[in-house]
Write a structure and sequence with these properties.
Blueprint lengths: L1 H26 L14 E4 L3 E4 L3 E10 L3 E9 L5 E7 L10 E7 L2 E12 L2 E12 L6 E7 L8 E4 L6 E2 L2 E3 L1 E6 L3
Parallel strand pairs: 1-12, 2-13
Antiparallel strand pairs: 1-3, 3-8, 4-7, 4-9, 4-10, 5-8, 6-7, 9-13, 10-11
């Protein structure tokens, strides 16, 4: 009887380990948009944007990570009194199901943050979408959306290890060209 109990325990352990291995593979196996290009740690905006005074527009922010992460922090700055970020959406993004997705806007700064216990596997895709509006009397000008350098608002990813290593990804700033209505 002891041999049978040991066999059952061994089979149960092997089955659990198999499920864990398969689950880890599917959870942590993201894909790059280009299979020949290895994943890197990066945050970027998709393109330059042309808008007109009075417009409402949205800017998607994408991120790529080469190992699983459980948190991200993106402090952004757009030095302009001509437009405002009125909301941030996580719908459709890789962090949409994280248990905590928050943003904070004040004047020309945006702090985006996401935290989860399981995290997201290596891969690339949408992080969040920033929603802006431009004042109707805005003159022709260019505005960049870049990192806010502030030690109390760090930029980076935290991996899913027990030490929660901070990963500082590359950042590609976005550019907005505002066209005057006049």
């Amino acid at each position: 009887m002891k041999t049978t109990d040991n066999n059952i325990i061994a089979c149960t352990c092997a089955t659990l380990l198999t499920f864990l291995a398969v689950g880890s593979f599917f959870h942590g196996c993201g894909k790059s948009t280009d299979p020949d290009k290895p994943l890197i740690n990066k945050v970027s905006m998709s393109q330059d944007f042309n808008v007109t005074g009075g417009d409402k527009f949205s800017i998607p922010i994408y991120f790529e990570n080469n190992k699983p992460i459980a948190a991200l922090s993106l402090p952004l700055h757009y030095p302009s009194d001509l437009m405002r970020c009125d909301s941030v959406s996580f719908v459709g993004g890789r962090c949409e199901k994280f248990f905590l997705n928050r943003y904070f806007t004040r004047h020309d700064t945006i702090q985006v943050g996401s935290i989860d216990t399981l995290g997201v596997g290596a891969g690339s895709g949408l992080c969040a979408t920033l929603h802006f509006w431009v004042f109707g009397n805005a003159p022709d000008t260019n505005v960049s959306i870049d990192l806010l350098v502030n030690p109390t608002l760090p930029f980076g990813f935290s991996d899913t290890s027990l030490t929660a290593e901070t990963i500082i990804p590359q950042f590609e700033a976005g550019r907005i060209h505002i066209n005057s209505q006049l």
